[in-house]
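Reopening: structure tokens for the adenosine-5'-triphosphate complex, inputs below.
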Amino acid sequence: MTTNSASTPTIRQRIRALFSRIWEPYRSVPLLGWLIAALVAVGLEQLVGLPLARGLGLTKIPALFGAVVILSKPALTPSALLFTTLIYILPIGIVARFTAPLTNRIAAKLAEYPLVVTALVHLVLLYAVLHIWCDITDYRLLVARLAMISIILTLSLNVVNGYMGEFSCSHPGFMSIGAYVASAFTIVLFVSENRFGEALLPPALGPYMFPLALMLGGLISAFGALLVAIPSFRTRGDYLAIISLAFMFIVKSFFENMEVVGGARGISNQPDYATLPIVFLWTILSIWIINNFVRSTMGKALNAVRDGELAANAMTVDTRKTKMTAFLFAAFWAGVAGGLFAHVLRYINPDSFGIRKLAEVLAMVYFGGLNSVTGSVVGAVGLSLISEALRPLDIFKWIIIPIMLILIMIYRPTGLIAFTEFNVEKIFLPKGRAPEGAEHASA
Amino acid sequence: MEFFFQQLINALQLGSFYALIAIGYSMVYGVLLLFNFAHGDVFMVGAYIGFFVSSALLGLNIFGALALPLSVTLSLVLVLTLIISMALNSIVGMLVERIGYRPLRDAPRASAAITGLMIGIILETGNLAILGPQRRSFPELIQSATINIAGVSFTNKKILIVFISILLTLALHQFVRHTKWGMAMRAMAYDYVVVPLMGISTNKIALMTFALGSALAAAAGILYGVAYPVLDPNMGILFGWKAFVAAILGGRGSILGAGLAGFLLGFIEIFVATIFPSTMRNLIAFGIILIILTFRPHGFFGEPFSAQLRL
Amino acid sequence: MPLLEVHDMTHFFGGLRAVHDYNLSIEPGQIRGLIGPNGAGKTTIFNLITGIYHPTEGEILLNGEEITRLEPNQIADRGLGRTFQNLRLWRYLSVLDHVKMARYSKLTYGLTGAFFGTSKRVREEKATDKLAMDLLELVGIPHLADQIVTNLPYGAQRRVELARALATEPKVLFLDEPTAGMNPEELIQMMAIIRQVHSEIGMAIYLIEHRMKVVMDLCEIIQTLNFGEVIAEGTPEEIRNDPGVIEAYLGKEVVI
Ligand SMILES: Nc1ncnc2c1ncn2[C@@H]1O[C@H](COP(=O)(O)OP(=O)(O)OP(=O)(O)O)[C@@H](O)[C@H]1O
Ligand SMILES: [Mg+2]
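Re-run output (same inputs, fresh job):
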């Protein structure tokens, strides 16, 4: 007994030591290195993925890193794991590690240019990876776009629930306003169908007007947010939560009663404007703007209102304006996300924006982490992918995901990555000098 | 006029369900300052427990030997079903507290709200997984009869449902007013810190609060089964959220307030549905709630909450 | 003309008359004190002047301009900065962010700057950074700039509050028991800081204190409050010998 209990920690320590030894050389890989390595991996998949998958006895390339295959056909587990190892883990591991000196040098060079240039280089690479990855199946394309829309939603909800510390439940409502407005805009103007008749403008113009549709949706949604923002001057916390919840129900049943937009049956035939690059651009734009906002002193006023409204007020902070900004800003982005959502699925109905959606977005915010841009990205992408990967489990998925979230709430009540600042200037920088030296030291 | 009275009874019946569920929300909210978002699904579980208990009682025919008239047998079954299901469902409630909320006692309240949401989803999915998606019809425990009072006719079921709910509400009110446990609950609602000083453990009070709320939810579930005899796993969602709104409308931790707000919600819905198309029901009901809360931000019976709210 | 004037201010909390016919006049650069037993209404007077409550009766003038009904943020922006008796710091913000936050109304980059990170914003935030660091230097905690306030010892938290109040560029600085809960060493440091702040910036200071030594040493004029009414006003010497003041403090072990 005694030896047993004494040896457990050492095994754990040994495993930990092993991991940190494997990880050691990767500490000096800059973001650029990871992106290039990922690019190599997806390129490899594009070139030899299909023959390799067939060779391993899989019918096609595993869509989500083999998770779906493992859960639906457990017998193929070794093949799926092998595929993921050969296509992703090994190539990324090797390329990231051995190009590190080079990528560090490039990153150092890039650091001399304005931040915009550096950011653009990284974004182009990131987009390339995403594009090639999604090229394999339409399913990936769908998952990726929905995951990015979730990022916008989660981040914007985090502005109110995390940064300002309210418990707002109206996000599905804002989202549906954006979705319906943008859909009506594009369908009326650019699509000939039964409900709204002939297209009013040449359809070729449509994609260029799409940003306008999204912004219109966002603005009207922000206008609707006044209904929640104004009561927030007088009441906070629980009662505001109820007000926002009532707002969500009102919007939902409003659209259920609007026969012009299909009532409970919903509205379809949205044009296919929400392509991968478009969704990508809007996601990056939202991250950039929201991150800018929350890092400014104006944005940190949200935190001051959360942590002590009275003191904020006495320190010259205009708390009303701050609350108003937070609600309207968040609603704007939720509306934009809704517009994108409608044009990705190309069909919406009021039920898409109910309690289930609310539970989903709240889960993403609190899973990823409050008051954190990184947390929201991780929460949105993480939960989207997990939810897709568990699809073969059918309804048991809805037992596993909640249990996972409960555990996270118990062990990390504010979420995985909470209360951090996303420092754009730092992430592009080259990493630790002299990787060889570090390697020798640890060996 | 007759139409009006019938609608009145309908409103009272619908209000009974909201009231019974809202009281459960309100107690948990008052005592622990938690949103128990799983409560609507606890109501659903209660209805299913009632379904199985009553089916079992009828199937076993335990009163068969007594050769009682059918109506008496059914009444006995109803009473037994209520008692057994309330007891069983309070165990469910206590489990929810123990597993989902106690570990989060000192965490931010929003985290606990998320846990509640997730427990609700687990309960719904668990039901779906075990019993399948088909709806079940609740056994007929009250023989339908039409009563005619002063020219207005309504079914005995509705009267009984309203009667039982009011009875339960008042019983709970008495319990909270006059027993040691009830006093401790109120003390805790008033000040979180003093209860441990009184030598009563916070955890016990929390368990009891959940048990009581869940028992009432089971009663609501059974009465719901008696009224509209179909059950489905998602029945708790919308019902639960509406009752939750009623609880807040009633005011923090006020049992009678929650009960009254539950009835109020029933009235709003039923009368809206008689005047406007029934699809507008939610729209107008929630519109009214939004207006009420905008102008009376602390509900009807609640006090303005202050720094003592632990966020 | 006095910098700040209060005329016949009365305030009720429900049926409780917390402040009665209160008058005040502060000259630029003056240091004044407000003393009185617990519950006398001292904090309430601060809250009324800084706009947290609006008085039932009376008027408040700053530089001859009426500010009675303004919101706290407007009053603070016009030059009444304050600290709180029970620290009111923001739990998750760093020390530097606390001080910067008090510059809120002085920032001009607006939402455009906040959303798009314009060069104007970058400039203003840099300038604010520098100003905030200077103030932290002044109160002696520049090394704590990046700390989250909850991790700091009590004395340091009081200094953060002071620096934050200074960042609003007060013409009158209201200090509500700035040395409460401090040990003798911290107390001496705090007094030195207050003196230094006063000599460097030269604003008027109005402070509430229970420790007579602090008030007597720092203030030129002291008001004594009891049950919401001023019972004595004068130099430290006069207050020390006022029978009414001694009466009000009877039963409390205070050495005047
Ligand atoms: N918001 C409020 N509502 C009702 N009564 C209040 C409120 N704030 C203060 N009071 C009451 O007003 C009176 C004066 O309180 P105040 O806090 O101004 O006293 P104080 O002189 O600052 O005392 P201390 O030395 O303890 O800080 C007290 O009786 C207090 O209970
Ligand atoms: Mg005081």
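The beta strands of chain A are 267-268, 347-348. Residues 12-134 of chain A form one domain. Marking as resolved unless the reporter disagrees.
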